[in-house]
Amino acid sequence: MSMHPTINYFKTFKGDCDCFIETGTYWGDGITLAIQAGFTFIHSIDIADQIPPWYKHELTYYTHIGDSAEKLKQLLPELEDKKIMFWLDAHSSLLEGSEDNFPLEREIKVIGKFRKNKGDVILIDDYLYMTHPLATGLSHTSLEYMIKQEVGWNYTISYLSNPIKKNILIAHL
Q1: Is the confidence at residue 170, as pLDDT, over 90?
Q2: What confidence tens digit (pLDDT) does each residue in 63-114 have?
Q3: Domain map of the chain by residue range?
Q4: Hey, how many other C-beta atoms are within 10 angstroms of the C-beta on 100?
Q5: How high is the pLDDT of residue 25?
Q6: Would you say domain 9-127+138-162 falls under CATH 3.40.50.150?
Q7: pTM, whole model, 2 decimals?
Q8: How far apart are CA 149 and CA 106, in angstroms?
Q9: pLDDT value at position 91?
Q10: What average pLDDT does range 44-72 have in this prediction?
């Protein structure tokens, strides 16, 4: 997770979202920032249980272990009446990998299936990494097009710093 060192973007762009869903829990920093931002419902999904033992007891309630796209398929029908902020940050730390190492495309398709035109906020961390030709095969334009096609053509796409310039994509109404 790479958030700006002095700005909690979850709080800045929360608006009327009452639910926070993160893919890529890692050590749980996203959960902490979501709590600080005041979300009522918080879910974090990771393929592995990586939260350090000294921190785990505080965060276990919020975490789901497993494939992020599959867990989203289970969670989203239960959250039909919620407005959601998604923080998509699930990826391998390796540059080259298979679809399993970079589930972003599958996550966006699941979000589109269950949440099309719902007015949710989508933040994608490590955007420059996610659109690196050796990592995912996605380009900047193909990822932007996929978001609009799957989630809604009326979404505006812009970029935030973390502090790397334009390294977080934000899609919102």
Answers
A1: yes
A2: 899 999 999 999 999 999 999 999 999 886 554 444 457 899 999 999 999 9
A3: 9-127+138-162
A4: 11
A5: 86
A6: yes
A7: 0.90
A8: 13
A9: 80
A10: 80
Kindly give, in sequence order, each residue whose CB lies less than 8 Å from that of residue 78, ignoring residues fewer than 6 positions away: none
Return the structure tokens found at 68.
Answer: 């992020």
Give yes or no for a contact between 91 and 129, defined as CB atoms under 8 angstroms apart: yes
Q: Report whether pLDDT(129) > 90.
A: no
Beta bridge mates, 122:
86, 171
Spatial CA neighbour of 97 closest among 47, 136, 48: 136
Q: What would the two tokens of residue 63 be?
A: 């975490």
Closest CA to 20 of 44, 52, 51, 50: 44
Would strands 156-160 and 168-172 be described as parallel, antiparallel, or unpaired?
Answer: antiparallel
Provide the Cα torsion 42, 48, 52, 56; round to 10°.
40
Q: Identify residue 65 by its one-letter amino acid code.
A: I
Alpha helices per DSSP H over 13-167: 29-37, 53-59, 68-75, 104-115, 127-130, 140-151
62 to each of 19, 140, 172, how far by Cα in Å? 12, 31, 24
In the structure encoding, which two tokens stand for residue 156, read together? 């505006």
Selected residue with higher pLDDT from 153 and 57: 153
Residue 104: name the closest of 80, 125, 133, 84 by CA.
Answer: 125
Map tokens 């890692």 to a residue: 26
